[in-house]
Amino acid sequence: MEQIPVTITVRGEQRLEGEITQMEHTVPGTLETDGETLILRYREPEEAGLGKTDTVLTFRGEEAVLERQGAVSARMPFLVGQRHRFSYRTPVGEMLLEVRTTFLSHNLTRDGGKAMLRYHLTSGGQTVGNHTLKLNVKEREL
Question: What is the model's pTM?
Fold first, then answer.
């Protein structure tokens, strides 16, 4: 698959016990597609607080998978209405989390586009947060 240079604007929101935390950053990345699968790759910026971590977000049909490798490691599958358990590794330890996807939509093509995920995270039956992740992808000139 061809790697297309892109600029990715990532907007995240976490809601927990009435408090809202928001972040936004714009990063260079790549987009690959074979028509059925679309893959976004980028390095998390310092301000994201994830250390040196590479993120790969794969969209295939009605499913998305977010994989992180580096200072933080995780593989989070997203499929609306389903729950998935996964391990979240950080420099200070590892947690077992469960993700329940409530919304997934994207119009991404080789020319860019937008994606949005809404999901609920729990650990040991306790809510970790309700999250929204929005991506805006544009082709980047080299």
Answer: 0.89
